[in-house]
């Protein structure tokens, strides 16, 4: 995975929590400064990986507010001084409920609620070394979900919007299937078929592969869905 990127950037995927959420450690090899994308839990494990790689954490980026993506963000901020950036403000209600949600799974210590240092909006940018990452607002899985991407490096961090062969759940509170499909097809597909995306769970893929094969949002699946909607009108 790392070999496919510009050699100046390093990437390590660190699965965390019982949900095996893909926390990404992304860093600039020149400065050895990096970011955590979606540190959902297991702060000690995350910090140990950063230490072993000699990476200094400068920022935390969040794609959305679910417990398994944002649960360690506040503790990482406390330990490193790194600001927590994102997601969109419409996910704050989820981040206010992280601790209580984890308690329902029997986890009583570790995860914390978090208020980001700043929220992200459509069109915002983030920087790491010489690279600029762009932001699109992609509601559907959650109302405040964002995707963070760079078309030069050809990588996107998509949280739980899109998966290899699937899409994010929309049966959670404030989920919306039509919104999610629209976010994927109008915000992600235009970025290019050669973009590799890192999902919140399981293996990475490319937008081009999903446009051909994904049973929910492939070009043929979307065309069929639109045809059915027109017949129902």
Give an account of the 3D structure.
- This protein is α+β, with helices and mostly antiparallel strands and 233 residues long.
- The protein has a single domain (2-232), classed as Metallo-beta-lactamase, Chain A, CATH 3.60.15.10.
- 28% of the residues lie in helices and 26% in strands.
- It is built from 8 helices and 13 strands.
- The protein has helices spanning 43-53, 67-70, 73-80, 92-95, 98-103, 177-188, 207-213, 219-232; strands spanning 9-16, 21-28, 33-37, 56-61, 84-85, 125-128, 131-137, 146-150, 155-159, 162-163, 166-167, 196-199, 205-206.
- The strands form 3 sheets. It has a 6-stranded mixed β-sheet with strand order 6-7-8-9-12-13.
- A hairpin with an 8-residue loop joins strand 7 and strand 8.
- The longest helix has 14 residues, at 219-232.
Describe how the helices and strands are arranged.
Layout: E1 9-16, E2 21-28, E3 33-37, H1 43-53, E4 56-61, H2 67-70, H3 73-80, E5 84-85, H4 92-95, H5 98-103, E6 125-128, E7 131-137, E8 146-150, E9 155-159, E10 162-163, E11 166-167, H6 177-188, E12 196-199, E13 205-206, H7 207-213, H8 219-232
Parallel strand pairs: 3-4, 4-5, 9-12
Antiparallel strand pairs: 1-2, 2-3, 6-7, 7-8, 8-9, 10-11, 12-13
